[in-house]
Amino acid sequence: MVALNTPKVDFNFTAKDFNLLGVDNKYYTLSDCYGENSLIIMFICNHCPYVQSIISNLVSDINLLKKDYQVNAVAIMPNDVNEYPEDSFENMVNFAKENKFTFPYLIDNTQKVAKEYGAICTPDFFGFNANLNLRYRGRFNDAKKEKVQNYEIGSSDLFQAMKFIAETGNPPIDQKSSIGCSIKWSNSTG
């Protein structure tokens, strides 16, 4: 697996609409996922060790962000499931249940959404303000592939950034790139 870092945030980027199937067999658009103060769009998958190392802490942080700061989240799985069956829709359903997702987990079968967002790895986090302007493109924390023991909910870079965005609408100054496994592009799409 190739580890990639995300590029610096493009403050001129605005959230692009989508219509993707979720693990609950419902379709979701951008407006279905939008939060009162901000929105996290994250590209993740089931098998990536970077995602697996943070997933329980990520779910806890997202739950607290939603409760205290009206920040919603949506996860999108962009990988080619023909080449990576561990990321299949059925396995996504199981992954969401096992990790108690309280946000939509969507499959990007065509990989069109991932390309429109310029996603390059899993996990790849996009934090938007209330106007759906991109204000954060950074990491969850510095854990890499190791699960953080005794994690304090709300201590992640992502949590602090989204709290700041929800309160001010502005981007946090200190943004460190996310690192993760490269998105598994289909040979027919890219």
Automatic annotation (TrEMBL):
Alkyl hydroperoxide reductase subunit C/ Thiol specific antioxidant domain mapped to chain residues: 15-136
Top-level taxon of origin: Bacteria
GO MF annotations, alphabetized: antioxidant activity; oxidoreductase activity
CDD domains, sorted: PRX_like1
Name this polypeptide is given: Thioredoxin family protein
Organism phylogeny: Bacteria, Pseudomonadati, Pseudomonadota, Alphaproteobacteria, Rickettsiales
